[in-house]
Structures are given as C-alpha cells and as structure tokens.
Amino acid sequence: MNPRIIDNRSARRLFLQRQGLCEQPYRKIGDSDLLSLIDKLGFVQVDSIQTVERAHHMILFARNQTYRHKQLSRLIEKEAALFENWTHDASVIPSRFFPYWKRRFAVRGETLRQRWGKTRRGDFESEVETVLQHIRENGPALARDLGNEDPKTAKGSSGWWDWHPSKTALEYLWHSGQLAVTARSGFQKVYDLTERVIPDEHRSAEPTAAETVDWACRAALDRLGLATSGEIAAFWDLVSAEEAKAWCLARKGGELEEVLVENARTKGNGRPRTAYCWAATDPLKDLPEVPKRLRVLSPFDPLIRDRKRIERLFGFHYRIEVFVPAAKRRYGYYVFPLLEGERLIGRIDMKHERDSGLLRVKGLWLEPKVKLSKARKDRLEAELERQRRFTGAERVAFDKGWKKDAS
C-alpha cells in the first residue's frame, strides 16, 4: 500500500502546534505554565547576543507575551526544574530529562579529556582536580573566581583555545556532567557540583543506552509531529543518525506510519519527503487554528533551527549572517524572521539601542508576493510595540528607507 500524502499546510500547522505557537499568546502564564511550555518544546537555546533581547527570552516571549525574564531564572535557580547543558547548542532543558544526558556526559567527557588533555596550557588533569576541589569546599564559582588570565593572552582572546586552564577545567567538568550551572551572573555561568544542583530524583536514575535511544527518538517525534529519522536524531543530538534510523525501521508498520509530506516548494527539489508519524492516533485530527498575529522570532527559535526542514515546510530560506563579512551580508548582522499566522513572511533588521532608548528598525524584507498592506503594517507595528515594552525601550524608530526590496 502506498504511503498516504500529508499536504504541506497540514504539516506546517502540525509543527506550529507542536512548537507551542498555536496557543493564544496573551493568556497569563505562571511559572508552572512556563515549565510546561518548555517541556513541550523540549529545550530552549541559550545565546548571549542581545541585539534586541537574548534568544532564550525571545523564544518564550514569541509564544506568550505575558512571559517575564525572572520566571526563567526562578525555574533554574530556585526550583531546579530546569538545567543547562547541550542539545545541538547550549540550552535550558527540563530537569526530569537529566538522566538521558548521562550517556552524552560520558562520551563528551572522554572526548574532551583526550583533546584538551593534549592541547591545552598547563597540567589538565591536575587543574581539573584543583577546580573540582575548590568548588567542593567553597561552593558555587564563576570562571573569574578561579584564576587570572595571563595578561599576554587575556587581551584579544577570541575563543576556547585562549581559555585560562581553570576555565578549560570548568567547561570539561560541565560537559562531563560533574558540574552544573546553578545560575547566571550577567551572562557568566555560575558552576556548582551536580549533586547540589540537580534534584536526587532526576540524578539517581540510570537509563541504559537502549532506553536512552528509545526515549530520545520518542520524545523527538512527539515534538516534531512528522519527521525523518535524520530529523529525529538531530532534535536532541543525543543519538546517532544510524541509531535513529534503526529505531524507525524497527517500528515501521507497527507503532510508526510512513507518510509522504508535501514540499512547500514545487520547483527544483520539491518532491514529497518520506517521514514518520505515530500510527495509533492521527496527528492531523483537530489541529487548532494558528493565531493570526505577526510575531518576531529569534534566529535561534526552535521552529527554524533546522534550516532545511523549515525551507521544505514553509518555503523560507534563512541564514544567520553574524559570521558573514559585512560586505557579503544580504540582509544584516542579526535579522529576525517574521511569522504571521502559519506563514513565514519575511525578516526584519532591528536593534535595541539601550543608550538612546530606541528600538530601531533598520530594514524590512518581505517574501515575494507578500505586500505591506495597511492591515499587515498595523500588525507589524503592534508586534514592535510588544517588543518595545518587553525590552524596556522608550520608543520605536524607523530608519529612512527601512522598507527593502525582497529581491
């Protein structure tokens, strides 16, 4: 029997629903609701760039306009309901998922021990033990508490290769699960012993490798709705592509249904893509309508993290240009995608200029065939006003020539 075909619009709406973008964004959200939202997303990426606001705050605000920064801090620092570690990048993750990171800690820890033990300054093993002992005896610490940079290397330091030995030891201990982030000071990580940060009920569980693979694949598919085995593997970055593929094949025709998902692009490589969904329930049944409002998304929003997937589902090509030389940028240093209802309609270049109190709009690029009608301009201005209030800017300002050509 031929796989059933999932139309593109239904696939998009399903993904938006699984990513928490179908719920009404103005309903009051408490701390327990916020934890439920992060659990639904799976994780929220953490990033230091603060062009408008830091990524983790923008991700949550895009889903609920009543979200406030202190709520996330409370869940991490007071409730220990979230922990910080790696998925595809640094992220905050529900603490109940902690046991499934133990396999990653073991593999990552050994990789870094081999790599950094051979290439870093100083006696790596001795420094690790010194740092661990310091925190064990003195409590939580920042990198600056544990050693001073060599003046010759402190200036112009531009990457992990310039870290002081104590900073290297801290990062190794964090990646290997021996230390955990208990708070942030500014944006600097505050480290403590994992047993003093992660609740015992989560830290004591010891899933097997097979249980970890099974959980990671199931939890990823729940949050993607429809997915290829490669997308399942990439979601948490906890299992290999081969493990995810084997997991899918073992359940194909039973727990999993193989389907064809229509591509948003009909030209070029626009053929339907084979994917999997749960067979027991129809994921497309009773999908809610997506709120019609226009929303600014962080470049690190989980909706658009997988650039190839988002291009297939939404026909939207996005590239962050932070690392692109200024002369070669098509749009700008840090340009935000715009979601309107169930469509990605363009991108906006804006910046919160904290000295002047302005939320400055430098450029707007709408997708081909998307017009800046009066109604759309009203929706854009309403969203910019929400962003202004959230960031604490005093007013929104538009640069001359801010309406750009989509070409």
Polypeptide structure, described:
The chain is an alpha+beta fold and 407 residues long. Helix content is 38%, strand content 18%. The strands form four sheets. A five-stranded mixed beta sheet has the order 9-10-11-12-13, with helices on one face. It starts with a strand and ends in a 9-residue tail after the last strand. Residues 149-158 have low confidence and may be disordered.
Short description, anyone?
The chain has helices spanning 8-18, 31-41, 55-63, 69-78, 102-119, 124-138, 151-154, 165-175, 200-203, 209-224, 229-236, 241-251, 307-314, 374-391, and strands at 5-6, 44-45, 82-86, 90-94, 179-185, 188-193, 256-261, 273-278, 294-296, 335-340, 343-353, 358-366, 395-398. The protein has 407 residues and is of the alpha+beta class.
Biggest beta sheet attributes: 5 strands, mixed
Terminal Cα span? 43 Å
Helix content: 25-40%
N-to-C SSE series? EHHEHHEEHHHHEEHHHHEEEHEEEHE
Instruction: Enumerate the spans where pLDDT stays under 50 for 5 or more consecutive residues.
Output: 149-158
Number of strands: 13
Counting DSSP H or I runs of 4 or more residues, the number of helices is: 14
Which class of secondary structure composition applies to the elements?
Answer: alpha+beta
- In order across it, which strands form the biggest sheet? 9-10-11-12-13
Which descriptors apply to this entry?
407 residues, alpha+beta, five-stranded mixed β-sheet, three-stranded mixed β-sheet, 14 helices
Topology (SSEs and partners):
Layout lengths: L4 E2 L1 H11 L12 H11 L2 E2 L9 H9 L5 H10 L3 E5 L3 E5 L7 H18 L4 H15 L12 H4 L10 H11 L3 E7 L2 E6 L6 H4 L5 H16 L4 H8 L4 H11 L4 E6 L11 E6 L15 E3 L10 H8 L20 E6 L2 E11 L4 E9 L7 H18 L3 E4 L9
Parallel strand pairs: 1-7, 12-13
Antiparallel strand pairs: 2-4, 3-4, 5-6, 7-8, 9-10, 10-11, 11-12
Helix pairs in contact: 5-8, 6-8, 10-11, 11-12
